[in-house]
Amino acid sequence: MSIGPEASITDERSAPTDDPAAERGSGEKAIAGRSLKQIAWRRLKRDKVALAGAVVVILLVIMAILAPVLTRLWGYPINEFHGDQIDPTIQTPLGAYGGISKDFLLGVEPGSGRDIFSRILYGAQTTLVVAILSALVSTILGGLLGLAAGYLGGWVDSVISRVMDFLLAFPQLLFAIALVSVLPDDLFGLDGRWSRVIVLIGVIGFFGWPYIGRIVRGQTLSLREREFVEASKSLGARSGRILFKELLPNLAAPILVYTTLIIPTNILTDAALSFLGVGIPPPNPSWGGMLSDALTYYTFDPMYMIIPGSMIFITVLAFNLFGDGLRDALDPKAR
């Protein structure tokens, strides 16, 4: 039987002692270590405001996914006209608060009588798809290019940095208006709604990557001088392994945080483009398009402007609160 250091330590711990402090200490439960994920989760659970934002985000996503089901249960088809709900004289909904009733939970649209509840649900579906997928495009492009610029340096860093400066100075909104205006509505063989969704995802995602690219580049410049990177180089690791196995996992926290914070910006951009008439084409529902239509009727029917405006406000606020809480939870310097 071999006796090593572990055996000797075990014997010392099991041996009786006359020290009362040691006896009290042996009866206490040992403090278990926690991983970074456990620490972040504990911090996030204590942030009630961030959790409330996360709950609202989850509910909005569920509403968007189940929009067809909810419409069949409590609404009407999005383009079904209800002329009997409209005052023929001034083209505003009959009844108070924009025609809200048990049959029309959020009222009806002025002039046409379309169900606002159903159009809000399908508008949430479109808005969240555009915002989340364009944020994903920005994250992938910005993460890869920022990682390459920060680690490789030299002319690669110079070229990527100049491209980021150019895109940050370029008028994104004007380019999106000009591009979307000349594209056909049936692009990619899809209908007008989803073909325009793909175009908006590409435009918003392409112009959004320089923001996260700068953050990733700055973090990479700091990490590439750390000891674990030098150790990997000394062991003969290739650049690809260092980039994706050593550096990228250490950049996951800031990338994740910035992705959650860029989504509300994309929501506002999508709403602005639809408000200007170059977003989702009518008669497809969109929150920005509903706000644009409400300009004609807001003096007679303010609810038609309040409802989509409130949805945009609640959605953006929920994503921002959750993103701020996630940033605080993943910050290693936070207490």
From TrEMBL:
UniProt superkingdom: Bacteria
Membrane topology: Multi-pass membrane protein
Annotated Basic and acidic residues bias: 10-27
Domain annotation ABC transmembrane type-1: ranges: 124-323
Annotated PROSITE patterns: ABC_TM1
Pfam family of the protein (one): OppC_N
Region annotated Disordered, chain positions: 1-29
Compartment(s) where it occurs, according to its Swiss-Prot or TrEMBL record: Cell membrane
Chain ranges passing through the membrane: 49-70, 128-151, 163-182, 194-212, 255-282, 302-323
Chief site of localization: membrane
Family, as annotated: Belongs to the binding-protein-dependent transport system permease family.
Name this polypeptide is given: Peptide ABC transporter permease
Organism: Winogradskya humida
